[in-house]
Design a protein that fits this description.
- This protein has helices at 10-28, 42-50, 53-56, 76-86, 109-114, 125-134, 151-164, 179-186, 200-206, 212-218, 229-244, 264-273, 304-308, 327-331, 363-371, 373-376, and strands at residues 35-39, 61-65, 91-95, 119-121, 139-146, 169-175, 195-198, 222-224, 250-252, 274-276, 279-282, 286-289, 293-295.
- The protein is α/β, with parallel strands linked by helices.
- The chain has 2 domains: 1-321, Rossmann fold (3-Layer(aba) Sandwich), CATH 3.40.50; 327-373, no CATH class.
- The strands form 4 sheets. Strands 2-1-7-8-9 form a 5-stranded parallel sheet. The protein has a 4-stranded parallel sheet with strand order 4-3-5-6, sandwiched between helices. Strands 10-13 form a two-stranded antiparallel ribbon.
- It is globular and about 70 Å long.
Length: 378
């Protein structure tokens, strides 16, 4: 297969759906409940709904949406701190577009921009670095956000700024890691999962070996998957085959992109620039040990927390969510978006209560985008 159209071929999809149905029926003969598969990545959630796979797949298989949207899992207090930095005199605050409308306790970055803060959307941290070069009399701050997928580009930008001596550039670091929240989910006695569809883009950086603990310690299979419909259907079939055979292994469906041991250049940049925080707060999951990254002391000049005196301490954590917002429950697979009483009424893309409705990888945004008012009325 060489072209995207081949990964969307209807005949191939029908064949995979038939194979999934046969395997699901064989498994279902010995159990009362459907096989519960969590897709960790928000990109997979959107693909599932874009192609209608949640409706096409056999009723013996249920997709559960996981905490794989980095914008969504960020606690509201960190959005508040973004706004605080952005509103300071002489600051140009830069961010990816899907973080602009995420609500904080006071306001979103979009609202802060409307109120006069100089906040600009960029496509990469290198765009922010270029702004710093062009505006030597301003402090340019990049909102470093995302899983291991985006962490290398931020690290490489910090290294470049250090080589050039661009001292008016810094990063507000909120980068997080995937394996640790999976462990937290598996440690939750109320979380009943049979297997995982692993994140493709994250795994492109870290490889597949960091997921070994899922199979080894918890006896759950995981298949790293691509994002096209046949990718996801083949991954579901691979998971069902493992379950039917009583196996629990880490398998790589996305081998055309994901190397077993990851990208060594990216991993070296991450190791050079970042170290683990002792813990980091996740919306819906609370504090998770060693799940967040911070900038090493050798690059402190490019650390916005150091530069602006905003530390990750008790004052910036454990703030209550917006009343009535069920983002935490949705992100941990305990509630579907349609189970939130605010979905489509008190929370819409125009007036969001939580990040899941506005992020490009949010589960609520996926439900709304591909089903809209029909889903809200259910």
């Amino acid at each position: 297969m060489k072209f995207a159209s081949e990964f969307r071929d209807p005949a191939a999809a029908r064949a995979l759906l038939s194979a999934v149905a046969a395997k699901a029926e064989a498994i279902g003969a010995s159990r009362a409940n459907p096989v519960r598969i969590m897709e960790i990545c928000g990109g997979h959630t959107h693909s599932i709904f874009r192609y209608g796979l949640d409706k096409l797949i056999h009723e013996g298989v249920e997709f559960i949406h996981g905490p794989g949207c980095p914008v969504c899992v960020l606690p509201m207090a960190r959005v508040d701190e973004c706004v605080e930095i952005a509103e300071r005199p002489g600051v140009i605050f830069t961010t990816f577009g899907d973080a602009m409308r995420v609500p904080g306790h006071r306001k979103s970055l979009m609202q802060a921009k409307a109120d006069g803060a100089d906040i600009r959307m960029v496509y990469s941290p290198l765009d922010a670095l270029e702004l710093a070069r062009r505006n030597p009399d301003r402090q340019v701050v990049f909102f470093g956000l995302g899983f291991e997928t985006t962490t290398p580009s931020t690290a490489l930008s910090i290294q470049q700024a250090a080589r050039e001596g661009v001292t008016n550039f810094s990063v507000f670091c909120n980068h997080i890691t995937v394996p640790e929240p999976i462990r937290a989910l598996l440690d939750d006695p109320d979380m009943l999962l049979d297997g995982f569809i692993g994140p493709g883009h994250v795994s492109m950086v870290i490889g597949i070996r960091p997921y070994d603990f899922i199979a080894r310690d918890y006896g759950k299979p995981i298949v790293v998957a691509g994002f096209e419909p046949t990718d996801l259907l083949q991954s579901a079939l691979m998971l069902l085959t493992q379950i039917a055979e009583g196996r629990a292994q880490v398998e790589n469906q996305y081998a055309r992109v994901v190397p077993e041991h990851g990208n060594p250049v990216s991993l070296a940049a991450i190791a050079d620039v970042y170290e683990r925080r002792p813990s980091f707060e996740w919306r819906g999951l609370g504090e998770i040990d060693a799940s967040g990254l911070r900038i090493r002391a050798r690059y402190a000049a490019f650390d916005a927390e150091e530069k602006f005196g905003i530390g990750y301490g008790a004052a910036s954590r454990n703030h209550p969510e917006t009343p009535g917002c069920a983002c935490g429950q949705v992100m941990t697979g305990k509630l579907r978006p349609t189970g939130c009483p605010q979905f489509g009424t008190g929370c819409t893309p125009d007036k969001p209560l939580g990040a899941l409705m506005v992020s490009s990888e949010g589960a609520c945004a996926a439900y709304w985008q591909y089903a809209g008012a029909r889903v809200a009325a259910q």
